[in-house]
Amino acid sequence: MSRAFVKEMDVVEDLPDRLISEHANLVTREGLAQIEGEVRRLSAEHAEAQAAEDRDRVAATARDLRYWTARLASAELVTPPAEKGRVHFGSTVMIERSSGKKQTFRIVGEDEAEPAKGTIPYAAPLARALSGKEVGDVIRFAEDEIEVLAVE
């Protein structure tokens, strides 16, 4: 039988890989555990998809498993320094904007960042601008002045 008569559904192409950041893959202990959990979960999902012969799920889980396996392999665990008064990776920072609005967030790795939950990636412009600053320092950020109120 000619390949011309094979159903399109019989051909499953690999999905394009997820983009990996060019920044170092710095992670907190929680971030490393999160990545390890994703690898375990996706490995199980991939095996289930293969057993069920679900080609779309096989392709999707294979792509995601490649991403998370690469992130696990490149993860650099950062232990926060004992010094608590200076902003660094892993710090929880409280700031006050010139508008009077106060915000608290933790600086974490890119894969574990969820701004809506109070975590921002260390590669974000605000995190980079605050890096190395201490309580009382004021920085100019875009059109705003930001004061560091607390660092833990």
Describe this structure in words.
The protein is of the alpha/beta class. The chain contains three helices and seven strands. A five-stranded mixed beta sheet has the order 5-4-3-7-6. Helix 1 packs antiparallel against helix 2. The longest helix is centred in the first third of the chain and has 23 residues. It is elongated, with a radius of gyration of 21 Å. The N terminus is likely disordered.
Biggest sheet statistics: 5 strands, mixed
Give the termini separation: 69 Å
The strands making up the biggest β-sheet line up spatially as: 5-4-3-7-6
Rg calc: 21 Å
CA-based shape:
elongated
- Counting DSSP E segments of at least 2 residues, the number of strands comes to 7
- Which structural category fits the helices and strands? alpha/beta
Count helical runs: 3
Sequence stretches where pLDDT stays below 50 over 5 or more residues:
1-12
Helix content: 25-40%
Mean pLDDT: 91
Strand content: 15-25%
